[in-house]
Amino acid sequence: MRAVVWKAPFQVSVDEVDDPRIEAPGDALVRLTTSGICGSDLHMYEGRAPMQPGQVVGHENMGVVEEVGPGVVSIRPGDRVVLPFNIACGFCFNCARGYTNACLTTNPQGHGGGYGYSGMGPYRGGQAELLRVPFADFNALKLPGKPGDEFEDDFLLLSDVFPTGYHSTEQAHVRAGDTVAIWGAGPVGLLAGLSARIRGASEIYIVDCVDDRLKAVSEMGATPIDFRKGDPVQQILDLREPHRRNVQELREGSGKKMPGVMCGIDAVGYEAWTHDAPGEEQEPTQAIEDLIRITNATGHIGLIGVYFPEDPGGVDDEAKKGRFTLSLGAAWEKGLSVEMGQAPVKRYNVYLRDLILAGIAKPSFFVSHRLPLEAAPDAYEKFDKRTQGYRKVLLKPNGLAA
Known about the structure:
By secondary structure, this protein is α/β, with parallel strands linked by helices. The protein contains 15 helices and 17 strands. The protein has two domains: 2-160 and 344-396, Quinone Oxidoreductase, Chain A, domain 1; 164-340, NAD(P)-binding Rossmann-like Domain (Rossmann fold), CATH 3.40.50.
């Protein structure tokens, strides 16, 4: 089969590799109809996460079941399915408690398995024509319709980005009427904004410095904050002034003491850019520090952006080891809660699927490119450089490219 293969930093190619096969009774083989290039893939593309040459990449996967093992009971050949990027067994201590992102069975290297991703087990990715799915009864979510229909791109986003964005609003404890600030208007940040809207947030601010992404923020009805124009924290404080004056100050003294937002989300991670050189110089704690400043006392912060324990491209020796200096005293004084880690996709994907089918959510609104598999090397390069217009790239391995 053809597949996207990692060769070296900033180098992927489309090669012929051996077809996957049924290896265990619970396996299934899925013929991919759509596979996404994720912002997290860029960490490996840039060589900032350990990878072995020859690894087939891609963890955002959906398609049609082609073959099942003798132990599979709930899906059959011909079923349309989407696959959580977390490969989970369904029966270990963590899976039984809903933490499928930390499965104890699927990854011999540690907790949590996944497709085609650094440190997440011996599984090939789905930027390919075929994919082996372990524990298929547990991991495959059935979908209605046919490949290429109006929901194709929306359903693909159930593999990672939509549940991940939604999980960040769980981490940040977003409730009806809450105010929310999100750092990063990439796919996860945008769908965190959509999720905050679904959960009833009254104000949503999303910070970035890429024009096309900021335009998408406006299109979805949130407030874009361009940090090329100045300190994003101060920009949000200025925009919130009318609310503080008209609402909060009805209770004497509260406006000045609670000037920020109640919920903050870091959808950037350790590759955040410094305010002083947006798009050029990185400051791995910039997003976290800004969120500590903007989040009100007793508020909540969700860190859904990636922070690796090892980063060969780190800005200094400490960052290379995943160690960062933070304003812990300021966070403690405010009584902030901070939650972090990967999303347990399976916890949310069935409910988000039904929001899509009900017409309440259209997560594919920001998809910019639908390309054949052969276009992957060029798409990786342009997506990595934040080339104008490259908001989200979907690969169509078996002929559905637009």
